[in-house]
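User: We ran a pulldown and think these components assemble together. Before we commit to crystallization trials, I'd like a predicted model of the whole complex to look at. Sequences follow.
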Amino acid sequence: MSSADAHSRKRTSEEKKGRPPAEEARRAPYRLLAAAWLVPGLGHWILGKRTRAIVFLAVIFAAFITGVLLDGEIGTPKPQSPFSWLAAFACLGNGLLSIIRLVWLNGVGGLLSNLPFGLQGGGSPSAAGFAYGNTFLYTAGLMNLLAVLDVADIARGDKD
Amino acid sequence: MDHLLLMIWHAFLVSAFFAFLWRSSAVGRKNLFLKTFLIMVVGSAALGWLMYPFP
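Assistant: Here's a predicted model for the assembly, 215 residues in total across the polymer chains.
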């Protein structure tokens, strides 16, 4: 099969999906982004950015553990508090770390049956480090989300 | 619980993250790390002193 045939076949498959070829080529793979979100640094590791991957994993893991040790609360949505959705979004940015912590606190059954408003986020509001712990947890999650965006930029070729 | 130590630890982590996110060369990373780390630590201490007279 000639290269012209291969090119023609590729263009046809992209046209079937209803997307222009240029846009298809610039789209970052969803599985790569999901991996980058679930495990901090994994997206960079897959793309060959090993140093960055190790530093991101170490920094985000350290921030998350510090937050938990300071009695911080994993943000969960609460019906009477609209801002709790922002906290939940920031904490969910931690990927598997956040999910494991929620399973640790609620159990698998509790996690599934109490979604979205009945989840326990842990932490102790009366603890001296509660506010600091929350800050570390939010920071860790938001840093991981920025790392996911960085993976998307690298995968699209917008950044090296 | 040492508040200053926690602030320095937080500044260290955030500075390291952004140094590796935004710079590719070792020199660039070192410079950005030092700049952001010092701005966060010294800036927070300065803000604390400025807020001292307020109740």
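DSSP finds two helices and no strands in chain B. That may be worth checking against your pulldown data before setting up trials.

User: Thanks, that helps.
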